[in-house]
Specification:
about 850 residues, Rossmann fold, four-stranded mixed β-sheet, 27 helices, 18 strands, about 5% strand
């Protein structure tokens, strides 16, 4: 039954006239006691540069190259109406209760007109003044005067704890309509380059080169920047105009105090205000706080006890004027605050506030000065009226607006800590952390709302992370880890990535202190994803490998797969090759093996190598080396192929072409049908490759087994995914190979239905052999077997051992080598093609085993 619009269920029956027995009671008071369907994990899919990022709070974010169909269109700018709506939403919330009168801007007309003139001419200005000098009020007045100066209007930004890159992204989000899109650096600079607006930047914390970077990236914008004197100054060659803001003079301070109190000051109060002006150097904030003290004094003097003398329901004497000052003896005489209390009034003002207002101040002190949003105060303070505390604090000038939220005013934090408001700081921070953990993880809370409370959440983490200890019970989890685990995905989905990084680093440290390996793996994975999106490939590789190692120890299969996929993407972007489909940590990456372009294990085809001498085809024989030595030992041809996956198609087509051409040349070179002795078939350039265990060169050994020991190597039959061939038991030979049985028992040609690999080493006569010994010498063959290649057994039905001893000079002549096909998820195998006449190492007489 709906609580507002009840239907037939109100009367205890549905359409059939009977209430269903399976339906639980719908009493609103006991609705939370029933069983609820568990809420689904909140995932956000966004585009960051060339990546499609899926923020997964369960197993870790997933990242992939953005498909063409998922790429957003070029962002468009907001209209004037939309900009005005966004500007209103970016303002700090209005405190509940009656609206307070806005105090005028006193003694700032000259600075206001100068700032408007400079901005109208397109000049950028830096307004420097101490905290509490009224910089924010002056910026608001100037922004109203410059509303029609620029085509993109006025953009208000907060520089509190923001870097130059953060401000560029904030400016982009304020002008362009691009939901769930975070452009990469080059695209961002191109887009902000076309923004023409008056940018009002308050509470900036950057200077020097960082500020120059912001100004250079936005040449069409005029900046009005407000900063305190302790912020680094701009560079010497900066084009910023400097405007300094000082305090009010004595008359201005007295006028501001009278407007804050709402009446004319007495002579005693004027003297007290003069001493306060000298002590505070004319800062407007001190006079506003002093006005709050005088209002509280008036309220205390106007208490109902002041009328006890005449009776509550009786009229006051006629001879007492209505507007008589309170120090004339009528009523209670409350003394003025001392000069010290007027210069540091936070403790005295707080003592005269309500209980929930003081509780809010305690939370603000525990959170480093951050005041929680007024909607959170009833839950934090455990009082339904606690949302009115913000109005009390704002009327007393104990808080000041910073962007879209409030912070404790300048100097209030130290004054309250001295007054004992920091007692129980840890417990206050834990209460805030528990509340924000529940709130940030609720499905109804959008990531943008969580980002608005980012500073309060991060402040709670700052307090709790150093206090984290290993839990005594397995069920007891660290509150800091829970808060970081819940808030970090929301920061990522809300595109507040500086807060995302801070939350991840805080969570990684807290999980390390809590000995929570699973959470450590999650935070390292997310840090790797963030670094990959920012283009920091070395950091991304380190973080992802650390995450994979931790998840491997926990047998977290799903998390490990997500980490390996991200690591394969890092390797692809950096141009690195994963040897054997493995990471630097030794983990196998089956999903990445077929995606990366690496040199074939059997060598690079001659089509990609150096040109061979006339009349001879060449094959570049390589050996797999360690990644650190690849740049020294891999040849030029190997480097041509071992790149990113963009070379995959070209490499496969070239390998296929080389295999076909090599087969044609081999058939032409070995087409002699005479029955000469096998020794005359031996060439001077047998197939050779560099061994992996020694420095010698020798003939490729045939793998034993499979019912054949003839040494005949089968030819790959099917092209693999990379365009090369792999061995197969399929009797169908590739195009260009012969299936005719051979009468030669030595195995120099195909026999028994098998096909020989295309060899570029042609047979020579004994008279042309450089060997000084006869062709029928029984001396052992000098060729050695390579260890870097593996041969597949021949499917021949019967062995054909050679009985004639031959002599073979081992030479470094090239022989065609066809790389084996590489399949995802299976170990790589290589089938080297060698002439059957080459002797196996270690066999007497060079006979083929």
């Amino acid at each position: 039954m709906e609580p507002i619009n009840p239907g037939p269920e109100k009367y205890g029956h549905d359409d059939d006239g009977q209430a269903p027995r399976s339906r639980p009671p719908r009493d609103p008071l006991t609705a939370d006691l029933g069983q609820h369907t568990p809420a689904l994990a909140r995932t956000v899919q966004l585009v960051s540069g060339d990546f499609l990022l899926t923020v997964n709070p369960v197993d870790g974010s997933e990242i992939e190259a953005c498909p063409p169909g998922e790429r957003p269109q070029r962002p468009t700018k907001f209209s004037a109406t939309e900009r005005a709506e966004l500007a209103r939403a970016a303002q700090p919330p209005v405190p509940p209760g009656p609206a307070q009168p806005r105090l005028p801007l006193l003694e700032r007309q000259e600075e206001r007109e100068r700032l408007v003139r400079l901005l109208a001419r397109g000049r950028s200005v830096r307004l420097t003044g101490p905290a509490g000098s009224g910089r924010t009020s002056l910026l608001e007045a100037v922004a109203e005067d410059c509303a029609d100066l620029a085509p993109d209007g006025v953009v208000r930004l907060s520089g509190y704890r923001r870097t130059a890159s953060d401000l560029l992204h904030d400016l982009f989000a304020a002008v362009y309509n691009a939901p769930l899109h975070r452009p990469e650096r080059d695209e961002l600079l191109e887009l902000v380059h076309g923004i023409g607006a008056v940018v009002v930047l308050d509470d900036v914390e950057i200077g020097g080169g960082a500020l120059d970077e912001l100004l250079d990236a936005t040449p069409e914008c005029a900046f009005l920047i407000a900063a305190t004197p302790d912020v680094p100054a701009p560079s010497t060659d900066s084009l910023l105009e400097e405007v300094f803001l000082s305090g009010l003079d004595r008359s201005g301070g007295l006028e501001l105090l009278e407007r804050a109190v709402g009446r004319v000051l007495t002579e005693e109060e004027s003297n007290w205000a003069g001493d306060l002006w000298f002590e505070s150097e004319g800062l407007p904030l001190r006079f506003m706080q002093a006005g709050a003290l005088l209002r509280h004094r008036d309220q205390m003097q106007a208490d109902e006890d002041a009328f006890d003398e005449f009776g509550v329901f009786q009229d006051a004497p006629v001879d007492v004027p209505v507007d008589a000052p309170f120090d004339t003896g009528v009523g209670h005489d409350v003394p003025l605050p001392s000069l010290a209390e007027g210069a540091a009034p936070a403790a005295l003002l707080a003592s005269r506030l309500s209980e929930w207002a003081r509780a809010t101040l305690r939370f603000a002190v525990a959170l480093g000065g951050e005041v929680p949003h007024q909607t959170h105060l009833p839950a934090l303070v455990d009082d339904t009226h606690a949302d009115a505390a913000l109005a009390e604090l704002a009327n007393c000038a104990l808080v000041s607006p910073v962007g879209s939220r409030y912070r404790l005013a300048a100097g209030v934090q130290a004054q309250l800590e001295a007054a004992g408001y920091a007692d129980g700081l840890e417990e206050q921070a834990r209460t805030a952390a528990r509340h924000y953990t529940w709130w940030a993880g609720h499905p109804s809370v959008t990531p943008e709302r969580v980002c608005a409370e980012a500073d309060a959440v991060l402040a709670a983490l700052t307090v709790l992370v150093p206090l984290t200890t290993p839990p005594l019970d397995e069920q007891d989890e660290s509150i800091a880890v829970q808060l970081a685990r819940t808030a970090a995905p929301a920061f990522a989905g809300g595109l507040h990535w500086s807060a995302w990084e801070r939350a991840l680093r805080a969570g990684a440290e807290a999980s390390r202190l809590a000995d929570d390996v699973g959470e450590q793996a999650y935070f390292h994975h997310e840090l790797g994803i963030l670094a990959l999106c920012d283009g920091q490939l070395d950091r991304a590789r380190a973080e992802l490998e650390a995450s994979i190692g931790l998840r491997g120890a926990l047998a977290d299969k799903r998390g490990t797969v997500a980490g390996r996929r991200a690591l394969a993407l890092v390797a692809d972007r950096s141009g690195a090759v994963l040897p054997g489909g493995r990471t630097a940590a030794g983990e196998e990456v089956p999903d990445a093996r077929h995606e990366e372009s690496a040199s074939p294990p059997g060598g690079v085809p001659a089509a990609f190598g150096l040109p061979a001498p006339a009349g001879e085809a060449s094959t570049l024989v390589t050996n797999r080396v360690e990644p650190g030595l690849a740049s020294k030992r891999v040849s030029v041809a190997g480097r041509l192929v071992s790149g990113t996956r963009r070379n995959l198609v070209a490499a496969g087509a070239g390998a296929l072409l080389a295999a076909v051409l090599g087969t044609v040349v081999t058939l032409g070179a070995t087409s002699n049908n005479n029955n000469d002795t096998p020794s005359e078939k031996v060439g001077v350039n047998p197939s050779a490759s560099q061994g992996g265990q020694d420095d010698s060169l020798g003939a490729d050994k045939a793998k034993k087994g499979g019912g054949s020991d003839t040494g005949v190597v089968t030819v790959p039959t099917d092209p693999g995914p990379d365009g090369t061939y792999g061995t197969s038991d399929d009797p169908t030979p590739p195009a260009g190979t012969s299936r005719q049985p051979s009468d030669n028992p030595t195995g120099t040609k195909s026999g028994g239905g098998t096909s020989t690999s295309p060899s570029k080493s042609a047979s020579t006569s004994p008279s042309k052999s450089p060997s000084p010994t006869p062709s029928k010498s029984t001396s052992p063959s000098s060729s050695t077997s390579p260890t870097g290649s593996t041969t597949s057994p021949s499917p021949s039905a019967s062995p054909t051992p050679s009985t004639t001893p031959t002599t073979s000079n081992s030479a470094s002549g090239p022989a065609s080598s066809i790389p084996a096909s590489t399949t995802a998820g299976a170990p790589q195998s290589s089938a080297a093609s060698v002439p059957a006449s080459s002797g196996a190492a270690g066999s007497p007489g060079g006979s083929v085993i």
